[in-house]
Amino acid sequence: MAELLRPFRLRGCGSPQKFGVAAGSLRGLLRKGCRLLQLPLAGSRLCLYEDGTELTESYFRALPAQTELVLLGPGQSWRGCASDIERLLAAFCSQQGAVVEAARRLLTDERAPHRQKLLADLIHNLSENILAEDKEEDKKWFEGLESRFKNKSSYLRHSCESRMRGYMREVTGFISNVHPSARDAYRGIIDLMAEKLKSVKYNGCYFDRREKEEAARLCTAEGWFSCQVP
Questions:
Q1: Most confident of 68-72, 109-113, 214-218
Q2: Where is the CIDE-N domain (predicted)?
Q3: Domains along the chain?
Q4: With 90 as the cut, is the pLDDT of residue 80 above it?
Q5: Does pTM top 0.85 for this prediction?
C-alpha cells in the first residue's frame, strides 16, 4: 500500500528560503530534501525549525502537515529560532546597511499589518545613529527638543524623572477616592514615597545608558531597552 504523502515546509540551516516537499515517511522526506538542497544523504537529518528537536520516524508520523523543518547536513546543528536570531545579529554587526535594505524589501512584499509594523520599527531602529551621544553627532535626533539638552543621556534622564513625577501626581490626585478614615495614612505614605524619590533623583538613572551601575538602569550601555515583564 502506497504511503500517504503529506506536505512540509523545508529549509536548510544556512538560508531562510523554504521549499514545499511532500513525503510519506521520514526517510523519503530526508532523501528528497538532500536531493533538493544538494546535501549528502549519509549523516544528514531533519529537525523542527521551532526548537531543533531531531525527528524520528514515529515523531514524523505525528507531525501535522505544513510543519516547518530544517535539514541538517553532516556536522551542522540547529538550536531553534535562536539560530536565526544569532545569524541576524551577526549580519547586523557586519553589514548593517544590507540588513536595513533586506528589511525594506521584505516590507514592500509584506501584507500582514502586524508584520508590517515590526519591519517598519526594525528599519527605523537600525537606521538610527544609536551609538552617537552628543547633539553634534546626531542633530536629527534632537529635533524638537529643548536646546538645553546637549546629549541623549541627559534628555532620557530628564524624561524618566518627568515620568516619575507624573506618576506621583496621579497617586496624589487619587486621594479623593480614599475613604476619609484612611486619608491621613495615605498622605503619610505619599510623603514617604515623595521623599524617597527625591533622594534618588526620581530614578532618572533608569533611562541613562551612561549610568555605570548596570543594575541601576533599564537599558543596555548602547541604549537598547527590553521588555521588563513576563
A1: 68-72
A2: 4-80
A3: 6-81 (3.10.20.10), 95-127 (no CATH), 135-216 (no CATH)
A4: no
A5: no
